[in-house]
Amino acid sequence: MQAQLRIRRYNPEKDSAGYWGEYTLNDVNSNDSVLDLLHRVKWEIDGTLSLRRSCAHGVCGSDAMRINGANMLACKTLVSRLGDGDSIKIQIEPILGLKVIKDLIVDMEPFMDHYKSVMPYFINDDPPPEDGRERLQSQEDRARFDDTTKCILCAACTTSCPSFWANDKYVGPAAVVNAHRFIFDSRDKAPEKRLAVVGDTFGVWRCRTNFNCTNACPREIEITKAIAEVKNVLYTGEI
Amino acid sequence: MTTYSGVTHRKVQVQSNFERYAFLFMRLSGIALLILAVGHMIVQHILNDVHSLTLQYVADQWSSWGWKVYDMLLLFIALPHGINGLRNVLEDYVHGESAVKTLNTVMAIFLIVSLLAAGFAIASF
Fold it and tell me: Which residues of A touch B99 (CB under 8 A)?
């Protein structure tokens, strides 16, 4: 199969604006990932192409990008998912809503600042259990936040959110997901602090429930549902 | 040995703000509008011909307290619902703090004047 790649390029040292680079690859297999194709472009055609990637197995969350108009992880997206036949066209852009540093690399700092704002770490100043081992909880309590533990901070959700595109002060779906993970943890003692952040003007109220985040999540976290659960706590005052 | 089972429910202190009430208002008023606005459409545009909607028709309708209350509810729910929706849309495009404040003030004045004028018109008809 032949793949025609259209990749958004931008080098701040040379270009005043971004442009589309077009590359043709032959002998592409349907089970190649988009990351494999980007590697071939970088290694065989143009070594200046810049992108982030690390584990290449959908775990580290480094290579979220906009592929044929939808946010995906390049390493988890196989060519077969994008089409079939003798020839395939693939358009690849950096994720939206964050400043492009170079080519497919964006500045993740604003995203990480929102993440840090919800205090994504366990807070409990009570002395540890007498046996010195872990703080136990029931399986039912653990199940309440199981889904939101899966986040890999790839930013695919937040950068697919129109509310975040419109206003980057919105904490975004990923921050709410990580707040949810601790708010619903029965062992954590600081839900109020996190609820104050996600319940603020630029918190969950900016969510328009259009499910872009849920569709974009490579970990299949039910993000819109998690946001709704946080909203419910903000109304009822009960976790 | 302590056993752990079931779901732990906890009460938390939640801070309130305008957005929290605005969001709740939009949900509740949306449900009310499903009944009021659809009812209005059925009565005025299906059961009655649009050409028969004369001043006399309105006068006859508002001679009944039931219709006055219905239209007053429609006014006081639909207009704030619409203005708040517009505020949300505009805030997606206007980010400057003073510009947002000015727009919100203009919309609030428009809302209050419209509610008072229309409310007075219905009540005194």
Answer: none
Largest CA distance in chain A: 66
Do A32 and A77 contact (CB within 8 A), yes or no? no
A112 CB-contact burial (10 Å; exposed 0-12 / middle 13-18 / buried 19+): middle
CATH code of domain B11-123: 1.20.1300.10
Name, in order, each residue with C-beta under 8 angstroms of A127's C-beta and a sequence gap of 6 or more: none
Are A92 and A65 in contact by the 8 Å Cβ rule? The answer is: yes
ipTM of the complex: 0.80
CA A4 – CA A16 distance, rounded (Å): 25
Quick: pLDDT tens for A51-101. Answer: 999 999 999 999 999 999 999 999 999 999 999 889 999 999 999 999 999
Taking the CA atoms of residue B59, residue B60, residue B61 and residue B66 in that order, the dihedral angle to the nearest 10 degrees is 110
Domain boundaries, chain B: 11-123
Query: Which residue among A136, A196, A200 places its CB closest to the CB of B4?
Result: A136
Measure the N-to-C terminal CA separation of chain B; round to a whole number of Å.
75
**What are A150's two structure tokens?**
């899966």
Superfamily (CATH H level) for A2-105:
Beta-grasp domain (3.10.20.30)
Which of A53-62, A140-149, B6-15, B106-115 shows the lowest mean pLDDT across its residues?
B6-15
pLDDT for B1 equals 53
B102 phi, psi to nearest 5 deg: -65, -45
Residue range B54-109, pLDDT digits in tens: 888 888 888 999 999 999 999 999 999 999 999 999 988 998 889 999 999 999 99
Nearest-CB residue to A140 (from B7, B13, B95): B7
Could you say which of 1.10.10.410, 1.10.1060.10, 3.40.50.10330, 2.60.40.10 is the CATH number of the domain covering A108-236?
A: 1.10.1060.10
Q: Do A167 and B95 touch (CB under 8 A)?
A: yes
C-alpha dihedral over A198, A195, A175, A229, to 10 degrees?
A: -90
